[in-house]
Design a protein that fits this description.
The protein has 320 residues and is an alpha/beta fold. 36% of the residues lie in helices and 11% in strands. Helix 9 (147-158) packs antiparallel against helix 10 (170-184), helix 10 (170-184) runs parallel beside helix 12 and helix 11 (195-201) runs antiparallel to helix 12. It starts with a helix and ends in a 20-residue tail after the last helix. Bound molecules: zinc ion (ZN). Zinc ion binds at residues 68, 197, 201, 257.
């Protein structure tokens, strides 16, 4: 929580008190724990967290644009193609890690993606990829939805739509993804939450913080589920990151992100699971890039991601 934003009447939604009550501590180490308690307890004590630039631990976009489609393309292809320069770019011409996995015999029809934003149909090239991409207001369950799917579908249709038809509220994406995880048992599941970005663009700082804290709790729910289900227990890893950074309180830049705004190329990532050493918050000086995530995720699965385009080298999560 940044007090400079919380104190600004333009952004605190008329109630800085509630923001301070929920998220403030003078010590930044205590403060970050109030916002993301699961990250700064379970992940910190079992996994790895990268991106604290105070220690010279840096992760950046390699693409030069610093907004969504170029970022997600970079995450999933390991290939920051400069031709991908717009959020309305057509279906991704490049093979993504998810498509590659769905083409491996061990992963065939065991890959799925859920995204609050409807652009994931194009970013992940749903048509060519042949794995399900449930985005925005897509209904789940096909011709025979389960009772749970019926309920979520009905609520999704009737829900408040603050971001129009392009993006649903994260609660629907999360519950749909959880239901799929529990009933279909995919081997690889991607979930993209969108509210932090949307509330920031709207300048609603309280909603922004609440959305971030909610996602922290949902990641905890996912982790608790996979660590209690025999299909997943002790053989499932989570990898968490973001498509881009954003500006800070100065000049009101925190609401947006692009290559005209300082530091929007600054990212973070976290990983936890079998085969991923306990390192906690990594404090060594490093320069890593988002383009390295695709091969890093493939390596966690014991695979090497190869396809028609170059794939950037992995991050060695177990290097000392
Ligand atoms: Zn945005």
């Amino acid at each position: 929580m940044d007090s400079a934003i919380a104190n600004n009447k333009k952004y605190n939604q008329g109630d800085s008190e509630v923001i301070y009550k929920k998220y403030w501590a003078a010590d930044p180490i205590e403060r970050r724990k109030k916002l993301l308690p699961f990250f700064w307890s379970t992940i910190e004590s079992n996994g790895q967290l990268y991106g604290n630039r105070n220690y010279g631990n840096k992760i950046d976009n390699a693409n030069p644009y610093w907004f969504s489609y170029p970022g997600y393309n970079e995450i999933f292809t390991g290939y920051p193609d400069t031709a991908i320069n717009s959020n309305s770019y057509p279906p991704n011409p490049h093979t993504t890690l998810l498509e590659f996995l769905n083409n491996q015999p061990n992963y065939k029809n065991k890959v799925a993606a859920f995204g609050a934003w409807d652009a994931f149909d194009r970013i992940l090239n749903e048509e060519r990829g042949k794995f399900p991409v449930y985005s925005a207001f897509d209904l789940t369950g096909g011709p025979k939805p389960s009772a749970t799917e019926n309920t979520i579908n009905a609520m999704l249709k009737d829900s408040y739509k603050p971001f129009g038809e392009a993006e649903c509220l994260d609660v629907f994406t999360h519950y749909n993804a959880m239901h799929y995880l529990q009933t279909k048992k995919p081997k690889v599941l991607y979930i993209s939450y969108g509210e932090t970005d949307e509330w920031a663009h709207s300048g609603q700082y309280r909603d922004y913080l609440d959305a971030a804290k909610m996602v922290d709790k949902w990641i905890q729910d996912i982790w608790n589920y996979v660590q209690t289900d025999p299909f997943y227990k002790n053989k499932t890893a989570i990898f968490i990151t973001t498509d881009h950074g954003r500006g800070d309180a100065k000049k009101d830049e925190w609401t947006s992100h692009n290559n005209k705004i300082k530091d929007c190329n600054q990212l973070w990532m976290a990983a936890m699971g079998p085969g991923i050493q306990l390192k906690g918050e990594v404090k060594t000086g490093l320069q890593l890039y988002q383009k390295q995530f695709a091969q890093t995720m493939a390596t966690i699965l014991g695979l090497t991601f190869t396809c028609e385009h170059p794939v950037a080298e992995k991050i060695n999560l177990n290097r000392d």
